[in-house]
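Long-time lurker. I teach an intro course on protein structure, and each term I like to show students one example going from raw sequence to a predicted 3D structure in token notation. This year I'd like something fresh instead of my usual example. Would anyone be willing to generate the tokens for the chain below so I can use it in lecture? Attribution to the forum is fine with me.
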Amino acid sequence: MALTFARKAAMAAVAVAALGGVSFAASASEAASGRTVHPASGRQAVHHPASAPASVAAERSAPAHRQEPQVVTQVIGRGRVDGHRWSVALEFHRSLPKGYIPPKLPDGSTTRGTSLLCQRMYIGGVRIDRQGGPWSDCRTVSGTQDPGASGGLGLWSLHDKGLSGTRLMVSTPEADVAYGVLTLADGTRVKATTVTVPGTAYRAWAAPIPDGKTITTVDQYDTHGNRLTHDTYWR
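-- Reply from a regular --
Happy to contribute to a lecture. Here you go:
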């Protein structure tokens, strides 16, 4: 379950309860070492023969048609905490998956959106909010640039609504937030870098909080190190 805070009123429309919650993005940090691990990137080399018939060369020079993938998954953060592996990933579905039923709003209507954005969170190999079903940590969005998907910050764990045990803090920040820093009561500082799902505007950062630790402050910064937000109500 999760204890969440949404900066936008639109984000408070739907809540699916089980032992977990929803939030999102890709980058990795470990509380014990204080280091941030960035996802690896690579380039694909294309080999061209030294010589080829003109007709073949012309065919090769024509741009290939590439179909956009229907599901894009981006790791936001991962590492080890309290002896357990943890990970957070954002999963974007360009169209609503077969079998997905939008949740109902308090007024009886259903959420609108043509796409689905899921926040997949794991501690020790167990998915947070698994009891709510396969779509419990997902929300509908309108295409790849829905501004309503940003501005949230939440604490998540496998039990007790994110108040105890090994926990994960996940932020889905505004576009100008480059990273977040958690300061714990014992002086430990945990930094997590914002990661964006390729081809979309959806982004997040994620950081682990060891069992028994208390959060003093949560700050978010831009690329120049300017502090944009400062929260002290988390614990």
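Some talking points for your students: The two ends are 15 Å apart (CA to CA). The chain has a mean pLDDT of 79.
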